[in-house]
Amino acid sequence: xxxxxxxxxxxxxxxxxxxDDLVAGLSQDIIQITSNYTGTDxxxxxxxxxxxxxxxxxxxxxxxxxxxxDADMIVRKKERxxxxxxxxxxxxxxxxxxxxxxxxxxxLSAIAPDxxxxxxxxxxxxxxxxxxxxxxxxxxEPYRQALVRHKLIEGLYNENAGGVEFLSPTLFRxxxxxxANVPRGQYNVQVYLFRDGNVISAQSxxxxxxxxxxxxxxFNFAHQSPLAYGLSTVFMASMLGWLSSMxxxxxx
Amino acid sequence: MEIYLPIAEMSVHWLLLFGIGGAxxxxxxxxxxxxxxxxTPLLMFYGIPSGVAVATTASHVTASSMSGALTxxxxxxxxxxLAAIMTASGITGTGVGVWLFGILREAGQMELIVSxxxxxxxxxxxxxxxxxxxxxxxxxxxxxxxxxxRAQHHNWIxxxxxxxxFRDSRLYISVIPPVLIGFSxxxxxxxxxxxxxxxxxxxxxxxxxxxxxxxxxTSLLQIVFVTAASTILHSVSDFTVDIMLAGIxxxxxxxxxxxxxxxxxxxxxxxxxxxxxxxxxxxxxxLLYGLLVSxxxxxxxxxxx
Lengths: 252, 305
Description:
By secondary structure, chain A is of the alpha+beta class. Chain A contains seven helices and 14 strands.
């Protein structure tokens, strides 16, 4: 068994982490987003190492949680004012993951009690901002739910019960979708080993998402020297306008 | 065919956007307009964030007005002094507009203001054009000459102080109207991404009484400079100009414009104006619909600035 794991780890050749009971790794630890990137899957995989864990009684589960870099977000609510729909109220949410994906061997609610899930922030219901601009959590709650809904549609948040599959009694893997619109930054892939509703081992592996190529350089250009960027855009526009009139004057 | 836009931060079908640029360019060549008032709403319908749509359209208008301005320049159909005064006031207006744009964005009301301004603008201009072109079409059917707007020799404009002589336009008038017109068009350019030719040309003809042969060149020159300033100011103050998107749109636009010019030359003026009016009203109606119909999801998510 260990040899198989070793071979897999070697084949994927990416960063692996090791604790007493659990080894885990990623098929890729850097994702480069280029202009033709349309999304990919990475594979988080690992093995349960400690045989005592294997033979102990009670159900055993694996949960893989991937979090993108934290960001502040504003959720606004449109309301009808004098017949027109306009943004009337907004709630600022501080430090929410810009990307979140959780896969598990079974539905999360079957794996552990609610307070445990809450403590580890596992599941879309348990993603909470550190603070909000709303007066009470009750006011903020519908805004938080709307945010999760939006991120689900964008493919940036997801929950996949059954997303972790066991290839053998000790070897498991999970596919993590990385769509094209993911933000840049350091991601964290956390693998939890649950036994009887308790975390008995956890592994954390970083994942880097970066933009490369022309887009990245243009983004940096726009933000680092905005005046030169603006002048270049104007220059390009006037040259194209001038060129086209020259070319078509020749033709006709 | 997907390409990632670095500033809009989204993947788009570049061929489709190239086509949109081409279609707007075609119409702008055919009707002799900058096309900004069509391009910004179309980009918003496509899903480009409204801030990026506005700021990037400004650079498209720079490109599409460039060749026209050059042609008029070669024909010496430009009042340089008037253009300079209106450009200076226009750039000031753009500065104010970009500042307002930042405030609206922070308050989460920019999309509403952009849409509502477009509804008012397109609704008014479309209705006026439709009425005028229908009257002209009816007159043409009867075989009459359409009554042209009679130039009065004196109006209230002549009572204003700070008179300046504009030799190329053979005018001796107060600088206040050109400055105010330039300033307002500058604000519009920053908030809506338009060149403002649809306001400039009638205002210069009917208010300032600039001779018709000089109006086009003078306003085109002003539009080139003001939209260029708008592009630069947006780049500096809110990072909403997407150079990749601009390149795609302009590429399609300059090609479309040349074909539009040729088709437009063969069509009758009142017919052209009629169809442009219909188009303007249709875009305005679509935006109005967006404001009035209840959204599927009242919540929206934004990144704070």
